[in-house]
Sequence to fold (326 residues):
Amino acid sequence: MPAVTVPDLTVLDRLGTPGLGDTVRPVKQVITAPKGYEGEGFPVRRAFAGVDLSDLDPFVHMDQMGEVEYAPGEPKGTPWHPHRGFETVTYIIDGVFDHRDSHGGGGSITNGDTQWMTAGAGLLHIETPPEWLVQSGGLFHGIQLWVNLPRSAKWNPPAYQDIRSAQVGLAASTDAGALVRVIAGHVGQTAGPGSTYTPMTMVHATVARGARLDLPWEPSYNALVYVLSGRGTVGTEGRPLETGNLAVLGAGDFLTLRASDHPDGRTPDLDVLVIGGEPIREPVAWAGPFVMNTKAEVMQAFEDFQAGSMGQIPAVHGAPTHLIEG
Ligand code: MN
Fold:
């Protein structure tokens, strides 16, 4: 798992531990993410399956893409598709993913990079492995998180942030047994580069075998812990977690995790994605690639997409971008 690694964690800023008067967040729910397929057929885990939208708020959806070792010719992406009313955050841990959107955004992201796309009023999007990777095959592992936008921002113009791994904020746990990568928001004094409409924090932490991680967490945010790989526990109650589990935590100032002394054999570390944000507390109407406040707005989004007002598929190799019948 490359993402960002640091050979000597003791040189990093250390996070604090809960003190008297701090509340460690209790565990409300643990689910196991079911496996599925996305786009042209790449394997995913649906990380939020079975969790109430009110517990996810301000998030609506998250896929763990892979982890998969592709054979040559096997890597897959998505066809062109629309989005409106929210943001997609794509974090690549292993492998390479190319993005383009009809608004002019795009780029290639790899080990530890993030593409933060604000769909806002609407655009077309495509996510594909590069041609050379399709030919060679290889390891692919990432996350795509959907962050809702408040009513007041759903019609904002599309925007694109290209966040490179070197920009990610880094900190270590008190005993330097855990590496904390802050992609957006802040943890204690350590800030991440992602600029968000909805106040939120996104962290990828690697906790060494047997080590404990205490994360100070904004009390007004929700808190979700998703296990990318490994085995451990969450909360002072020591609730067991393994690969593909999502823990929904209750209120508090800190969250606490521990990597197992008896790892699962595939990796000695516990790797987790920890996310939380300020709940938007507005009605959610969601169908396919559109996340709006009302059903009428979702119907409008489908009509606008059909009418071509979310953008046109850019020309490729001189091929037609509208339907030709013959
Ligand atoms: Mn997309």
